[in-house]
TrEMBL record:
It comes from the Archaea. Keywords: Membrane, Transmembrane, Transmembrane helix. It comes from Thermococcus guaymasensis DSM 11113. This is HXXEE domain-containing protein. It holds the Pfam family HXXEE.
Amino acid sequence: MEPMKKRSVKAWLEEYWPVSTPFLAVYLTVVLVLFVLKENFALFLIWLQTPVYWVHQFEEYICPGGFVEFFNRKVLGSKREDWPLTKTHALWINVPIIFVAFPLSAILAGLVDISIGIWTAYFSILNALSHVGMFFRHGYNPGLVASALLNIPIGAYTVYYFATSHPLSLGAHIAGFLVALAIQGALMVWGLKFMKAKATL
């Protein structure tokens, strides 16, 4: 019974983790506006990347959803909507980065140094640009609207703010960009190379 219970919890998480994103986005945004916006605008911008990305995930997986199916059929050319990219992959890609690394970086940005969080803005921009790139090749893809209306403009404004009104060192910007590029690059290589190879099996 115990292995079956573990599988049930895992299956439930794989199916329903995105459902939390709109509620978390609204709750965190309200908290940020009430308690962080006026006190520390720089930190507010770093924290803001997290609810913005939750909205992005909501579009990808809930409304209208279908990113896994889109990526398999359109990008990878698979004959199946659920292979080679699976709901398990979606869980283990999205949750560690957005539910863990983004908030943790914002916490450290407040406690240690604000520059620790700048990579989240760069990552938000880079990932959003990948959706724009897919649009020119495949048309609308889940996550595109949030990318165009939220991720890119808010991410770009954050980078601009930290380059002008609250300047960080060039090294901090380079480090943040490289971290974001490494994560996005790893995701793209994994998705477009290794998953692509599995799509033909």
